[in-house]
Amino acid sequence: MSRLSFLLLGVIALSMSASAQYGGSHGGYEDHEEHKDYYAPPHYTYEYKVHDSHTGDVKSAHETREGDVVKGFYSLAEADGTIREVHYTADHKNGFNAEVKKIGHAHHAPAPKQHAPSQHGYQF
User: Fold this and answer.
1) How far is CA 24 from the centre of its chain?
2) How would you write the chain as a 3-class SS string?
3) C-alpha to C-alpha distance for 72 and 63, rounded to whole angstroms
4) CA dihedral sign of residues 12, 13, 15, 20
5) Rounded mean pLDDT of the chain?
6) Which terminus of the chain has fewer CB atoms gathered within 10 Å of its CB, N or C?
7) Rounded to 5 degrees, what angle do the CA atoms 52, 62, 42 make?
8) Could you tell me which residue, 99 or 33, shows the higher pLDDT?
9) Rounded Cα distance, 7 and 22, in Å
């Protein structure tokens, strides 16, 4: 027997031994009927706030999730000076539902003054 044949036979025997030791080609799970479900329902809480007086960016949000039920709210300062506040819930049975509130009174910038046509303007 040549050295190559002997080496090849040794590698085959070693791989068969390892396969038998660790349960064959199925990783040792073919005879186990117990199944463990490692699924855990989603659960989280997050929150953020921004208050930038330089840009006027003012907003916040808060949300929680327990399994398939999501509850939260967010608010933001609108350009007209009001605050938009939204409270929402979402679940598999009822879908997404939101209640939107506008808080405060809108402030509008005065309209630019209209100038009368010039008496000395150019005519085409």
Assistant:
1) 42
2) CCHHHHHHHHHHHHHHHHHHHCCHHHCCCCCCCCCCCCCCCCEEEEEEEEEECCCCEEEEEEEEEECCEEEEEEEEECCCCCEEEEEEEEECCCEEEEEEEEECCCCCCCCCCCCCCCCCCCCC
3) 4
4) positive
5) 79
6) C
7) 140
8) 99
9) 23
- On whether the CB atoms of residues 76 and 58 are closer than 8 A, the answer is yes
Residue type at 100 in one-letter notation: V
More confident residue, 114 or 3: 114
Contacts of 122 (CB under 8 A, 6+ apart): none
pLDDT 10s digits, 41-80: 889 999 999 999 898 899 999 999 999 999 999 999 998 9
Handedness of CA 116, 121, 123, 124 (dihedral sign): negative
Which of 100, 47, 93 is CA-nearest to residue 69?
Answer: 93
- CA–CA gap between residue 84 and residue 87 (Å, rounded): 10
Per-residue exposure over 103-124, b if at least 16 CB sit within 10 Å of its own CB, e if not: eeeeeeeeeeeeeeeeeeeeee
